[in-house]
Amino acid sequence: YTKSLGDFNASTQAPVASCSKWLTAALVMQFVDEGKLSLDDKVSKYLPIFSEYGKGYITIRHCLSHTTGIEGDKPGLASIIKMGRYKSLEEQVNDFASKHNIQVNPGLEFRYSNIGLNIAGRVLEVISKRPFDRLMVEKLFRPMNMKNSSFSTDYEKAVNPSGGAQSSAADYMNFLSMLLNKGMFNGKRVLSEQAIKTMQEAQTNLSMIKYAPAAGEGLNYALGEWILEADAEGKSLVVASPGLFGTWPLVDIGKNYAAIFFVKNLLSGEQKKEIYTELKNSIDNGIVLQGK
What we know:
The protein is α+β, with helices and mostly antiparallel strands and 292 residues long.
């Protein structure tokens, strides 16, 4: 099902802000699938500067789950503007190591920010010896026919794995379809079933959450994605990765569908969680009524 308004359609490219985190987490999991990286590898194995500044115990898992313990700026327009001063991802990540304090030991507290995913993105650059944006095209966008997607922007000099993606509703839907189909897209294996399962496993409990944006309040976090619903045993049923500009992608594992609400403009500075909850309820009710 597709519905568009005006000249903003499923092929229109627009910034997706923190929806980028889901893409970056998937790219990291490709490296895990290939045996080039472990989620429990210390970042300092690839970026020695972290050991020099007392941050040697941070792992890739901590980076993908916002539990690095490094003090960061709260996500928002001000943070995006501030990030624009960096000339490269390497320069920015070195700043995280040398100029940002450790608030708490890694793995103990969750604070949503752009730090962890950007560190992970830099690790991929070091391992592959290729720029992050090129890696994303070669390993994710091209295999999933995401021709209107990129991490190249006019407003940021340095690539931003946490929030710098531009995409379209149709493109991002291809990505969601791959997640829904346990790593397969058009008959091709993009991620292993185990990688998808691992990405959806909760890395937090609610007592760990020290800062979350409005869209994530009261929710647990997995790897690059929020857990909107879970069963009695804690297994994820609905996962999502909302963006600041209002775009809201989700996968409903229990009801076996994926959806994306893709918007053009900033919605009052915060994701309108109640709007998307109503829209999802409408979808769920329609599925029940049709007996599917």
